[in-house]
Amino acid sequence: xxxxxxxxxxxxLNEADRLKSVLRATTLCDGSRPENSGEHSWHLAxxxxxxxxxxxxxxxxxxxxxMLLLHDLVEIDVGDVPIHSANGAAHASAATMQAEQRAADxxxxxxxxxxxxxxxxxxxxxxxxxxxxxxFAKSLDRVxxxxxxxxxxxxxxxxxxxxxxxxxxxxxxxxxRGAPRLWTWVRERALGYFS
Length: 195
What we know:
Residues 16-183 form the HD domain. α6 crosses α7 and α7 (132-151) packs antiparallel against α9 (164-178).
């Protein structure tokens, strides 16, 4: 039994390594190259650890970190859909959501049942963004690319000709929902870019 469990755990970990090959539109803060989804997930976990004081009372940062480490694994199959791209609105489409569900079934299905169910529940919670933990995790997932764009002199905002109104609508509302003080601070800096 132990050998089968370990084999399943390593099958999952080896599959998860493929996330490092999924390139995102967002660049590194220095603008030198696109980040990959593995780097993004690690950076978000560090964001949660560092910005824990911006969470609502009662948010469990350890759960948030676990969500953030798992949240983009479906991109192994589906790829990254930049929020400001022409396909960004399609991210919420039924077809994209179904593709992500299938990817979650496949990837988490590699694990032993207890881990499969636990990891999948965290992924589903993140996607629904209804709990305080998930709302904070979603906020960080939206704020990290904003900070990368600010640090790199515009980044994907230039690529996709993003306006302040689009930033407020597509990103700001999600950040403010889980971390309102954080959005106020970040938006003030974004105003400098868009003015």
